[in-house]
Amino acid sequence: MEKELGNVVTERILPPTEQEVSNEIDVKVKKYMRGEGANLEVLKDKKLKGQLSAIEDLYGKSAKAAAEVEKWLMPSEGGYLETEGLEKTWRIKQETISHEVDILSRRNQHDIILPALGPYSIDYTSNGRYMAIAGRKGHLALVDMKDLNLIKEFQVKETVRDVVFLHNELFFAAAQKKYPYIYNREGTELHCLKEHGSVRRLQFLKNHFLLVSINKFGQLHYQDVTTGSMVGSFRTGLGRTDVMQVNPFNGVIATGHSGGSVAMWKPTSSAPLVKMLCHPGPVSALAFHPNGHLMATSGAERKIKLWDLRKFEVLQTLPGHAKTLDFSQKGLLAYGTGSFVQILGDFSGAQNYNRYMAHSMAKGYQIGKILFRPYEDVLGIGHSMGWSSILIPGSGEPNFDTWVANPFETSKQRREKEVRSLLDKLPPETISLNPTKIGTLMAVKKKEKKTKKERDAEEEAAVDAAKGITMKKKTKGRNKPTKREKKKHEIIEKAKRPFLHEQIKEEELSRKKSRLSEEVELPKSLQRFARKKTAT
Amino acid sequence: MKVKVISRSTDEFTRERSHDLQRVFRNFDPSLRTQEKAVEYVRAVNAAKLDKMFAKPFIGAMDGHMDSVSCMAKNPNHLKGIFSGSMDGDIRLWDIANRRTVYQFPGHQGAVRGLTASTDGRILISCGTDCTVRLWNVPVPTLNSYETSNNSSEPLAVYVWKNAFWAIDHQWDGNLFATAGAQLDIWDHNRSQPVSSYEWGTDSVISVRFNPGEPNVLATSASDRSIALYDLRMSSPARKVIMRTKTNSICWNPREPMNFTAANEDCNCYSYDSRKLDEAKCVHRDHVSAVMDIDFSPSGREFVTGSYDRTIRIFPYNGGHSREIYHTKRMQRVFCVRFSCDASYVISGSDDTNLRLWKAKASEQLGVLLPREKRKHEYQEAVKNRYKHLPEVKRIVRHRHLPKPIFKAAALRRTIIDAERRKEERRKAHSAPGSISTVPLRRRRIIKEVE
């Protein structure tokens, strides 16, 4: 008997290394479970319970399989920067790093000086292989970043404010002086998007194939690039801005305005989903964490704020002014101001960002835009004298997925992926603050309205209860029958009051409803005289 | 200071030689795939649409009979062959793959009413209104065709009996077969007269089916609207249930052999547990006219019914409504249907003298599937199944085009049923509580159970 017991114990306690591994996998499984499982205990339907528990079982198994793949089969490990003794990571210069890393990575540290054509804006493709650059004075170029090969460079001879890649490196859009244009990789102009007007900033939603722009009148345009149809165009009503960023988690567009507010938009409603006052002064930059729950904003009052987008609360306020902000795939936050770049990291895991690295460029360079290169430990900087690229260890995702974004994509794979992503193109209605809601049940409706009978019965009961109250005997003079009667009457009236209020409210509602339906029923010729609906 | 940055050499991540396969790397991190749920939903909608686009269930018609097809039988030993008998006494063996007659069995004088094959598939037994039971030798199929030395044969034996026959069925395991006529007769292959007869009441028996699990148990339906169960080891019938309308055909569920489904004259099919006949397990409603024949898929998960309303429907064994409806302009009243032995085809015989071949899954891709295609189909099936409750997917999956008369008849039936239900509800609301009890549909059409 004792021997048996002993066996059981030895089985349960794994050797320390295996124990560690299983703990590590447990942590990883949590990531792949995508939230809590359903609570099946409350279900009464046995058949449904059986089906759901089978499904939950499958979820668990697949999450475990994915975690094991991550543990054992990933080809590369992430970058890191570790210090010893009194060294500080933020004092480590790019030159020091370049001595330590291999020759291939050293090529990612470069400064391209192009002083003539003025502040540069940059954009990477989603696989990080290609870069588009746009000089303010009309210089557009396409660079293959793998071997630093200039694919195409041309001059459009007018102001270029922003550049953005469409779904792959074959097409990119540039916001020029009067209109945005779409070019292909040979530099041929394919489209002039006149409806957008004089655009300040462009963004592209990869899942929806929507090109989003904000123009100098503060108008937001959503254009479907596959069909060319304009999906939505709204006035923000908050003035001119060039702060606009897409939240990669849910496809919501956020714009920062001079009043200090940040508004979030979807293409199917003219009113913002969220309008939050983030800063007392103008918002100068905006960025989203790839997991979608964290937003960084910077204001002209020299503050950078980190927001929790689930609760819309400030998590952290940091001092500093940022002309441009960007989150990396692994969650590092970079901000650039003047000729100085600072990188913050969240090392405690509690969303507490501290200094991680810093980089200062030659004096007088004005940083226009910084952008982390996907799947690489590289930060691209577009500034007034050209563009630069520096190494930030630990910023990029080390393992790519061939079917999501492949830096080593062949043209055949690219063509195939284009077709697949077009088949999976999302309709614009799928953009909402919480994208995981799709396919879930609607919340249970609140209790139905009471019927008139029930309400009357309740009122009667309340009145009866009021009548039944026995009154205290008061001192002489205050105990007159008239006064007592008056008091009693008052009590009854008081009991009736809430029911009366309810009735009035309901009547008002029904009146409003009928007015609305009237509006709908007006003949077409009279509709223009009807009262305009207030913008909601 | 220790530092490491991501550095990928091209050689490690691309193929070595041009005829190698491209290398594939996976990272299942959810944060790399944004809006995955929406993408999955869109895929489900697309899968449902593709399913609709590829839904071409009709494969072809097999013509040759000169009169309407009255009965069919599967050959349990050969996948490609099916026997059919017609009202003019013609019996044919069809090759389903080529959709041609390969053999004919002439001899019956009147209509052939029943066909069945022995367990080993060597002997075909037919019966008809000419009061004869005929045993035939089934030709042996060779590799690519039947031995067609002479395309017709003489019967092995002809047994003449007292009355016309309505149906016939062979034991799943054994040497006996049963015929239904004025009474239920049990025959042996080698005897010219029945080995035993059963009679319960005076009305004629119209269908008979042996139990697939227990070779000596069989179920019959009779024109006195009853369904009766028999055990050959006993001298008298076991039990019967009398319903309000006649049952045209019965089929046992091969996977759950205690259950059977009865095709009833009142447009519905009733699934019964043979141990508990006082209540149907499930009522399968959708047809708008009498259901003439029923056959279970060999998987036991679904069954096919043919109806007098000129349609064929496929029902899940436990679902109240059909999953599929098949019809063509030229197909008339359907008298017999059979599932093929591999559960992937349905064959119907109808009044217009043709046999028709249908796919059991309307949008299934025929032919050999590549593993990649198979995976793709599986994935599409899975996403469709996952989002089947969402209105858009549900609408696309459920939609079927119906011929106008059937659509109208179904609407009329619905109105009638709703009106009856409403009337019942009102009557109940206005009478003394407890004085009117509602009988569930599963029990409503049953008059009584007799032991």
Automatic annotation (TrEMBL), chain A:
Its main location: nucleus. Transmembrane segments: none annotated. SUPFAM superfamilies: WD40 repeat-like (SSF50978). Residues 488-522 have a biased composition (Basic and acidic residues). Residues 449-536 are annotated as: Disordered. GO terms for cellular component: nucleolus; small-subunit processome. Residues 355-435 form the BING4 C-terminal domain. Pfam families: BING4CT, WD40. Keywords: Nucleus, Repeat, WD repeat. PROSITE patterns: WD_REPEATS_2, WD_REPEATS_REGION. Residues 470-487 have a biased composition (Basic residues). GO terms for biological process: maturation of SSU-rRNA from tricistronic rRNA transcript (SSU-rRNA, 5.8S rRNA, LSU-rRNA). It is found in: Nucleus, Nucleolus. WD repeats lie at residues 276-317. PANTHER family: WD REPEAT-CONTAINING PROTEIN 46 (PTHR14085:SF3), WD-REPEAT PROTEIN BING4 (PTHR14085). This is BING4 C-terminal domain-containing protein. The lineage of its organism: Eukaryota, Viridiplantae, Streptophyta, Embryophyta, Tracheophyta.
UniProtKB/TrEMBL annotation, chain B:
Residues 360-446 form the Sof1-like protein domain. GO terms for cellular component: nucleolus; small-subunit processome. This is DDB1- and CUL4-associated factor 13. WD repeats lie at residues 62-104, 105-138, 284-315, 327-368. It is found in: Nucleus, Nucleolus. Its main location: nucleus. PANTHER family: DDB1- AND CUL4-ASSOCIATED FACTOR 13, U3 SMALL NUCLEOLAR RNA U3 SNORNA ASSOCIATED PROTEIN. GO terms for biological process: maturation of SSU-rRNA from tricistronic rRNA transcript (SSU-rRNA, 5.8S rRNA, LSU-rRNA); protein ubiquitination. It comes from Cucumis sativus (Cucumber). Belongs to the WD repeat DCAF13/WDSOF1 family. Keywords: Nucleus, Repeat, Ribonucleoprotein, WD repeat. Pfam families: Sof1, WD40.
